[in-house]
Amino acid sequence: RMQREVMLNVGSIWLRGRAHLPIGADLANFVSGSMARFMPITDATVIGAQAVEPRTVLVNRDQLRCMIVE
């Protein structure tokens, strides 16, 4: 899988981490496509939160408001 550094907004939470895409996948189609509903983000941290160990989170694409590729 191809890793992309991203910053994304879900509800009132902003996260920074790594999205894992199939090799050759287009990010826009991957996010809005009919693939799995949940997208794994590894090494995820909550922006503006107290220092917490990075972790893996699953993001519900239906709740995704914004994603920025860094």
Outline the secondary-structure elements:
Elements: E1 2-10, E2 13-21, H1 27-32, E3 38-46, E4 55-60, E5 64-69
Question: How is this structure best summarized?
Answer:
The protein is mainly β and 70 residues long. 9% of the residues lie in helices and 56% in strands. The protein contains one helix and five strands; from the N terminus they run ββαβββ.
N-to-C SSE string, H for helix and E for strand? EEHEEE
Strand order of the largest sheet: 4-3-2-1-5
Beta strand count: 5
| Helix residue percentage | under 10%
The description of the largest β-sheet is: 5 strands, antiparallel
Poorly predicted residue ranges? none
The gyration radius over C-alpha positions equals 12 Å
Shape: globular
Q: What is the residue-mean pLDDT, rounded to a whole number? A: 86
Helix tally equals 1
Return the structural class: mainly beta
| Terminal CA distance | 17 Å
User: What portion of residues belong to β-strands?
Assistant: over 45%
Could you list some keywords that capture this structure?
single chain; mainly beta; 5-stranded antiparallel beta sheet; 1 helix; 5 strands
Structure description:
This protein is mainly beta and 70 residues long. Helix content is 9%, strand content 56%. Strands 4-3-2-1-5 form a 5-stranded antiparallel beta sheet. Strand 1 (2-10) and strand 2 form a beta hairpin. The radius of gyration is 12 Å and the shape is globular. The chain is built from 1 helix and 5 strands, in the order ββαβββ.
